[in-house]
Protein backbone atom coordinates (compact mmCIF):
# COMPACT_ATOMS: atom_id res chain seq x y z
CA UNK A 1 0.00 0.00 0.00
CA UNK A 2 1.19 3.46 -0.93
CA UNK A 3 0.02 4.85 2.41
CA UNK A 4 2.04 2.29 4.38
CA UNK A 5 5.23 2.98 2.40
CA UNK A 6 4.94 6.73 2.97
CA UNK A 7 4.13 6.23 6.68
CA UNK A 8 7.40 4.31 7.06
CA UNK A 9 9.49 7.16 5.70
CA UNK A 10 7.69 10.41 6.55
CA UNK A 11 5.82 12.08 9.40
CA UNK A 12 4.45 15.21 7.69
CA UNK A 13 0.93 14.58 6.39
CA UNK A 14 1.07 17.28 3.64
CA UNK A 15 4.38 15.82 2.40
CA UNK A 16 2.99 12.28 2.41
CA UNK A 17 -0.15 13.33 0.54
CA UNK A 18 1.82 15.33 -2.03
CA UNK A 19 4.10 12.36 -2.70
CA UNK A 20 1.05 10.08 -2.77
CA UNK A 21 -0.29 11.89 -5.82
CA UNK A 22 2.39 10.19 -7.95
CA UNK A 23 1.10 6.84 -6.68
CA UNK A 24 -2.50 7.45 -7.73
CA UNK A 25 -1.90 9.62 -10.79
CA UNK A 26 -4.04 8.39 -13.66
CA UNK A 27 -5.31 5.52 -11.52
CA UNK A 28 -8.78 4.90 -10.15
CA UNK A 29 -7.18 4.10 -6.81
CA UNK A 30 -6.61 5.69 -3.42
CA UNK A 31 -3.42 5.70 -1.32
CA UNK A 32 -5.04 2.80 0.57
CA UNK A 33 -5.57 0.63 -2.54
CA UNK A 34 -3.32 -2.48 -2.70
CA UNK A 35 -0.67 -2.08 -5.42
CA UNK A 36 -0.75 1.73 -5.39
CA UNK A 37 2.83 1.76 -4.13
CA UNK A 38 4.05 0.43 -7.49
CA UNK A 39 2.64 3.38 -9.43
CA UNK A 40 4.71 5.72 -7.24
CA UNK A 41 7.81 3.65 -7.98
CA UNK A 42 6.98 3.70 -11.70
CA UNK A 43 6.97 7.49 -11.66
CA UNK A 44 10.29 7.94 -9.87
CA UNK A 45 12.35 5.03 -11.19
CA UNK A 46 13.59 6.92 -14.25
CA UNK A 47 16.05 9.75 -14.52
CA UNK A 48 16.57 12.86 -16.62
CA UNK A 49 19.98 14.33 -17.41
CA UNK A 50 21.50 12.20 -14.66
CA UNK A 51 19.01 13.16 -11.98
CA UNK A 52 17.09 10.14 -10.74
CA UNK A 53 13.34 10.63 -10.32
CA UNK A 54 13.45 14.05 -11.99
CA UNK A 55 10.79 15.27 -14.41
CA UNK A 56 11.06 17.98 -17.03
CA UNK A 57 9.07 20.13 -19.41
CA UNK A 58 9.36 19.71 -23.16
CA UNK A 59 10.31 23.01 -24.75
CA UNK A 60 7.55 23.93 -27.19
CA UNK A 61 4.98 21.69 -25.51
CA UNK A 62 4.50 17.91 -25.63
CA UNK A 63 3.85 18.08 -29.37
CA UNK A 64 7.46 19.18 -29.83
CA UNK A 65 8.59 15.77 -28.57
CA UNK A 66 6.43 14.01 -31.17
CA UNK A 67 7.80 16.31 -33.87
CA UNK A 68 11.40 15.58 -32.82
CA UNK A 69 10.77 11.82 -33.08
CA UNK A 70 9.06 12.35 -36.44
CA UNK A 71 12.00 14.35 -37.80
CA UNK A 72 14.45 11.68 -36.63
CA UNK A 73 12.38 8.98 -38.35
CA UNK A 74 11.98 10.99 -41.57
CA UNK A 75 15.74 11.56 -41.67
CA UNK A 76 16.11 7.75 -41.73
CA UNK A 77 13.65 7.43 -44.63
CA UNK A 78 10.34 6.96 -42.80
CA UNK A 79 7.14 8.14 -44.45
CA UNK A 80 4.66 9.61 -41.98
CA UNK A 81 0.95 9.87 -42.76
CA UNK A 82 -0.71 12.13 -40.19
CA UNK A 83 -4.48 12.28 -39.71
CA UNK A 84 -4.91 9.05 -41.71
CA UNK A 85 -7.13 6.73 -39.72
CA UNK A 86 -6.51 2.99 -40.00
CA UNK A 87 -9.54 0.84 -40.82
CA UNK A 88 -8.00 -2.59 -40.17
CA UNK A 89 -4.81 -4.61 -40.27
CA UNK A 90 -4.27 -6.40 -43.59
CA UNK A 91 -3.91 -10.16 -43.09
CA UNK A 92 -2.57 -12.75 -45.52
CA UNK A 93 -4.07 -16.18 -46.11
CA UNK A 94 -1.86 -17.62 -43.38
CA UNK A 95 -3.17 -15.02 -40.90
CA UNK A 96 0.06 -13.02 -40.98
CA UNK A 97 0.01 -9.20 -40.82
CA UNK A 98 0.87 -7.75 -44.22
CA UNK A 99 0.15 -4.05 -43.70
CA UNK A 100 -2.83 -1.84 -42.93
CA UNK A 101 -5.86 -0.52 -44.77
CA UNK A 102 -6.70 3.15 -44.25
CA UNK A 103 -10.27 4.37 -43.90
CA UNK A 104 -10.09 5.87 -47.39
CA UNK A 105 -9.34 2.38 -48.76
CA UNK A 106 -5.61 2.90 -49.32
CA UNK A 107 -3.53 -0.21 -48.64
CA UNK A 108 -0.12 0.24 -47.03
CA UNK A 109 1.75 -3.05 -47.33
CA UNK A 110 4.54 -4.04 -44.96
CA UNK A 111 6.34 -7.14 -43.69
CA UNK A 112 5.80 -5.98 -40.10
CA UNK A 113 3.12 -3.91 -38.37
CA UNK A 114 3.73 -2.19 -35.02
CA UNK A 115 0.74 -0.69 -33.24
CA UNK A 116 1.01 1.90 -30.49
CA UNK A 117 -2.78 2.14 -30.29
CA UNK A 118 -4.29 0.59 -27.18
CA UNK A 119 -4.62 -3.21 -26.98
CA UNK A 120 -8.40 -2.71 -27.13
CA UNK A 121 -8.29 -0.80 -30.43
CA UNK A 122 -5.54 -3.00 -31.89
CA UNK A 123 -7.12 -6.38 -31.16
CA UNK A 124 -10.84 -5.64 -30.75
CA UNK A 125 -11.32 -3.15 -33.61
CA UNK A 126 -8.51 -3.60 -36.16
CA UNK A 127 -8.36 -7.42 -36.23
CA UNK A 128 -11.25 -9.83 -37.07
CA UNK A 129 -12.12 -11.59 -33.79
CA UNK A 130 -12.15 -15.04 -35.39
CA UNK A 131 -8.42 -14.64 -36.12
CA UNK A 132 -7.60 -14.42 -32.40
CA UNK A 133 -7.68 -17.01 -29.58
CA UNK A 134 -10.89 -16.71 -27.57
CA UNK A 135 -9.11 -16.53 -24.21
CA UNK A 136 -6.88 -13.73 -25.54
CA UNK A 137 -9.87 -11.69 -26.73
CA UNK A 138 -11.56 -12.24 -23.37
CA UNK A 139 -8.47 -11.04 -21.52
CA UNK A 140 -8.24 -7.86 -23.64
CA UNK A 141 -11.94 -7.19 -23.06
CA UNK A 142 -11.41 -7.55 -19.30
CA UNK A 143 -8.56 -5.04 -18.98
CA UNK A 144 -9.45 -2.51 -16.29
CA UNK A 145 -9.43 0.85 -18.08
CA UNK A 146 -11.20 2.96 -15.46
CA UNK A 147 -9.74 6.45 -15.39
CA UNK A 148 -10.23 9.22 -12.84
CA UNK A 149 -8.63 11.97 -14.91
CA UNK A 150 -10.14 15.20 -16.15
CA UNK A 151 -7.59 17.47 -17.79
CA UNK A 152 -8.30 21.20 -17.91
CA UNK A 153 -6.16 23.51 -20.05
CA UNK A 154 -6.42 27.16 -19.04
CA UNK A 155 -5.30 30.46 -20.57
CA UNK A 156 -4.75 33.25 -18.04
CA UNK A 157 -3.77 36.92 -18.37
CA UNK A 158 -1.41 36.85 -15.35
CA UNK A 159 0.45 34.46 -13.11
CA UNK A 160 -1.51 32.97 -10.20
CA UNK A 161 -0.50 34.62 -6.93
CA UNK A 162 -0.67 32.14 -4.05
CA UNK A 163 -1.41 33.23 -0.49
CA UNK A 164 1.47 31.05 0.69
CA UNK A 165 3.94 32.71 -1.73
CA UNK A 166 2.66 35.97 -3.25
CA UNK A 167 3.93 37.12 -6.63
CA UNK A 168 6.79 39.56 -7.03
CA UNK A 169 5.80 43.10 -7.97
CA UNK A 170 7.21 42.75 -11.48
CA UNK A 171 4.96 39.73 -12.12
CA UNK A 172 7.88 37.54 -13.14
CA UNK A 173 7.69 33.77 -12.45
CA UNK A 174 9.07 32.68 -9.08
CA UNK A 175 10.70 29.25 -8.46
CA UNK A 176 7.44 27.63 -7.36
CA UNK A 177 5.75 28.69 -10.62
CA UNK A 178 8.31 26.56 -12.45
CA UNK A 179 7.45 23.40 -10.52
CA UNK A 180 4.51 21.06 -10.22
CA UNK A 181 2.05 22.59 -7.73
CA UNK A 182 -0.16 20.15 -5.79
CA UNK A 183 -3.41 21.42 -4.31
CA UNK A 184 -5.94 19.76 -1.99
CA UNK A 185 -3.16 17.49 -0.77
CA UNK A 186 -2.99 18.44 2.91
CA UNK A 187 -3.65 14.84 3.94
CA UNK A 188 -3.93 11.38 2.39
CA UNK A 189 -7.44 11.15 3.86
CA UNK A 190 -8.49 13.91 1.44
CA UNK A 191 -7.26 11.85 -1.52
CA UNK A 192 -9.10 8.79 -0.23
CA UNK A 193 -12.26 10.83 0.25
CA UNK A 194 -12.01 12.23 -3.29
CA UNK A 195 -11.54 8.68 -4.63
CA UNK A 196 -14.53 7.34 -2.68
CA UNK A 197 -16.86 9.96 -4.14
CA UNK A 198 -15.83 8.99 -7.69
CA UNK A 199 -16.42 5.27 -7.07
CA UNK A 200 -20.02 6.23 -6.27
CA UNK A 201 -20.36 8.08 -9.57
CA UNK A 202 -19.82 11.61 -8.28
CA UNK A 203 -16.95 13.91 -9.32
CA UNK A 204 -14.81 14.75 -6.28
CA UNK A 205 -16.10 17.72 -4.30
CA UNK A 206 -12.49 18.52 -3.35
CA UNK A 207 -10.47 17.09 -6.23
CA UNK A 208 -6.76 16.38 -6.27
CA UNK A 209 -5.19 19.07 -8.50
CA UNK A 210 -1.75 19.01 -10.05
CA UNK A 211 -1.14 22.47 -11.48
CA UNK A 212 1.68 23.26 -13.90
CA UNK A 213 2.52 26.52 -15.65
CA UNK A 214 4.74 25.46 -18.59
CA UNK A 215 4.87 29.03 -19.95
CA UNK A 216 6.79 30.04 -16.79
CA UNK A 217 9.71 28.07 -18.26
CA UNK A 218 8.86 28.34 -21.95
CA UNK A 219 7.61 31.91 -22.66
CA UNK A 220 6.90 31.09 -26.32
CA UNK A 221 3.78 29.18 -25.29
CA UNK A 222 1.80 32.35 -24.50
CA UNK A 223 1.75 36.07 -25.35
CA UNK A 224 3.85 38.32 -23.13
CA UNK A 225 2.39 38.63 -19.63
CA UNK A 226 -0.06 35.80 -20.27
CA UNK A 227 0.35 32.15 -19.34
CA UNK A 228 -1.00 28.68 -19.98
CA UNK A 229 -1.93 26.59 -16.96
CA UNK A 230 -2.29 22.81 -17.15
CA UNK A 231 -4.58 21.21 -14.57
CA UNK A 232 -4.36 17.44 -14.13
CA UNK A 233 -7.30 16.63 -11.85
CA UNK A 234 -9.00 13.61 -10.34
CA UNK A 235 -11.23 11.95 -9.40
CA UNK A 236 -13.94 11.98 -12.03
CA UNK A 237 -15.86 8.82 -12.98
CA UNK A 238 -16.21 7.87 -16.65
CA UNK A 239 -19.94 7.39 -16.09
CA UNK A 240 -21.78 9.66 -13.70
CA UNK A 241 -24.25 8.36 -11.10
CA UNK A 242 -27.59 7.40 -12.61
CA UNK A 243 -26.00 7.06 -16.05
CA UNK A 244 -26.01 10.83 -16.58
CA UNK A 245 -23.81 11.95 -19.49
CA UNK A 246 -20.85 14.32 -19.21
CA UNK A 247 -22.78 17.13 -20.91
CA UNK A 248 -21.73 20.79 -20.94
CA UNK A 249 -23.50 21.44 -17.66
CA UNK A 250 -21.73 18.56 -15.85
CA UNK A 251 -18.33 19.47 -17.32
CA UNK A 252 -18.61 23.13 -16.39
CA UNK A 253 -19.93 22.31 -12.91
CA UNK A 254 -16.86 20.15 -12.22
CA UNK A 255 -14.48 22.73 -13.71
CA UNK A 256 -16.09 25.40 -11.52
CA UNK A 257 -15.40 23.19 -8.47
CA UNK A 258 -11.73 22.92 -9.51
CA UNK A 259 -11.47 26.68 -10.09
CA UNK A 260 -13.11 27.43 -6.71
CA UNK A 261 -10.47 25.26 -5.04
CA UNK A 262 -7.63 27.08 -6.82
CA UNK A 263 -9.20 30.43 -5.92
CA UNK A 264 -8.94 29.51 -2.23
CA UNK A 265 -5.17 29.07 -2.60
CA UNK A 266 -4.64 31.89 -5.12
CA UNK A 267 -7.30 34.63 -4.88
CA UNK A 268 -7.87 36.35 -8.23
CA UNK A 269 -7.23 33.19 -10.26
CA UNK A 270 -10.79 32.96 -11.58
CA UNK A 271 -10.72 36.60 -12.71
CA UNK A 272 -7.49 35.95 -14.63
CA UNK A 273 -8.98 33.17 -16.78
CA UNK A 274 -9.32 34.00 -20.48
CA UNK A 275 -10.40 30.55 -21.66
CA UNK A 276 -10.53 26.92 -20.61
CA UNK A 277 -10.66 23.52 -22.30
CA UNK A 278 -12.24 20.69 -20.26
CA UNK A 279 -11.39 17.08 -21.15
CA UNK A 280 -13.33 14.48 -19.14
CA UNK A 281 -12.61 10.72 -19.39
CA UNK A 282 -15.04 10.27 -22.34
CA UNK A 283 -13.38 13.24 -24.11
CA UNK A 284 -9.91 11.72 -23.62
CA UNK A 285 -11.20 8.46 -25.12
CA UNK A 286 -12.91 10.12 -28.08
CA UNK A 287 -10.09 12.54 -28.98
CA UNK A 288 -6.98 10.51 -28.19
CA UNK A 289 -8.19 6.90 -28.40
CA UNK A 290 -7.44 6.29 -24.70
CA UNK A 291 -9.68 3.40 -23.54
CA UNK A 292 -11.93 4.70 -20.78
CA UNK A 293 -9.81 7.88 -20.89
CA UNK A 294 -6.97 5.95 -19.23
CA UNK A 295 -3.62 7.65 -19.92
CA UNK A 296 -1.83 4.30 -19.55
CA UNK A 297 -4.15 2.36 -21.96
CA UNK A 298 -5.15 0.30 -18.90
CA UNK A 299 -4.64 0.45 -15.15
CA UNK A 300 -1.10 0.01 -13.80
CA UNK A 301 -2.32 -2.45 -11.17
CA UNK A 302 -0.22 -5.47 -10.21
CA UNK A 303 -2.50 -7.87 -12.13
CA UNK A 304 -1.93 -5.84 -15.33
CA UNK A 305 1.84 -5.42 -15.20
CA UNK A 306 5.00 -7.29 -16.21
CA UNK A 307 4.22 -10.73 -17.71
CA UNK A 308 0.47 -9.95 -17.66
CA UNK A 309 0.66 -6.78 -19.79
CA UNK A 310 -1.40 -6.73 -21.97
CA UNK A 311 -2.15 -10.44 -21.39
CA UNK A 312 -0.33 -13.46 -19.94
CA UNK A 313 2.07 -15.01 -22.50
CA UNK A 314 1.97 -11.83 -24.61
CA UNK A 315 4.19 -9.42 -22.66
CA UNK A 316 7.04 -9.83 -25.17
CA UNK A 317 5.50 -7.40 -27.74
CA UNK A 318 4.56 -10.20 -30.18
CA UNK A 319 0.84 -10.84 -30.58
CA UNK A 320 -1.27 -13.85 -31.63
CA UNK A 321 -1.06 -12.41 -35.16
CA UNK A 322 2.39 -13.13 -36.66
CA UNK A 323 4.29 -9.96 -37.62
CA UNK A 324 1.95 -7.70 -35.56
CA UNK A 325 3.55 -6.09 -32.51
CA UNK A 326 2.21 -3.93 -29.69
CA UNK A 327 4.49 -1.00 -28.80
CA UNK A 328 2.33 1.50 -26.88
CA UNK A 329 1.42 2.15 -23.25
CA UNK A 330 -0.64 -1.05 -23.10
CA UNK A 331 2.56 -3.08 -23.55
CA UNK A 332 5.26 -3.75 -20.93
CA UNK A 333 6.36 -1.75 -18.90
CA UNK A 334 3.34 0.52 -19.23
CA UNK A 335 2.66 4.23 -19.64
CA UNK A 336 4.82 7.29 -19.20
CA UNK A 337 6.88 9.49 -21.51
CA UNK A 338 9.90 7.20 -21.60
CA UNK A 339 9.72 5.24 -24.85
CA UNK A 340 10.61 1.94 -23.15
CA UNK A 341 7.76 -0.05 -24.71
CA UNK A 342 8.57 1.28 -28.19
CA UNK A 343 12.30 0.66 -27.85
CA UNK A 344 11.81 -2.88 -26.60
CA UNK A 345 9.22 -3.67 -29.27
CA UNK A 346 11.54 -2.35 -31.99
CA UNK A 347 14.31 -4.72 -30.87
CA UNK A 348 11.92 -7.71 -30.98
CA UNK A 349 10.56 -6.69 -34.39
CA UNK A 350 14.07 -6.19 -35.82
CA UNK A 351 15.11 -9.63 -34.57
CA UNK A 352 12.10 -11.22 -36.29
CA UNK A 353 12.65 -9.15 -39.44
CA UNK A 354 16.08 -10.72 -39.92
CA UNK A 355 14.43 -14.13 -40.27
CA UNK A 356 11.73 -13.10 -42.76
UniProtKB/TrEMBL annotation:
Spell out the SUPFAM superfamilies in the cross-references: FAD/NAD(P)-binding domain
Q: Which family does it belong to?
A: Belongs to the carotenoid/retinoid oxidoreductase family.
Q: Which Gene3D superfamilies match?
A: FAD/NAD(P)-binding domain (3.50.50.60)
Protein name (record): PYRD2 protein
- InterPro entries, alphabetically? FAD/NAD-bd_sf (IPR036188)
Amino acid sequence: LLGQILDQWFESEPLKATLATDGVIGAMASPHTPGSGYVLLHHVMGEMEGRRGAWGYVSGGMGALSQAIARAAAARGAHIFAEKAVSHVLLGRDGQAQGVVLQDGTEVRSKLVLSNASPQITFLELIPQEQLPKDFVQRIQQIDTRSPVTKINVAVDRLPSFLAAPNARDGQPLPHHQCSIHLNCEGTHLLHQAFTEATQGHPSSRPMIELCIPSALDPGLAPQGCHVVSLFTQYTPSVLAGGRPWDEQARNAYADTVFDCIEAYAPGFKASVIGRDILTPPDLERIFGLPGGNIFHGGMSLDQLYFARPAPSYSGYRSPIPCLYLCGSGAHPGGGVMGAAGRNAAHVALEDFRHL
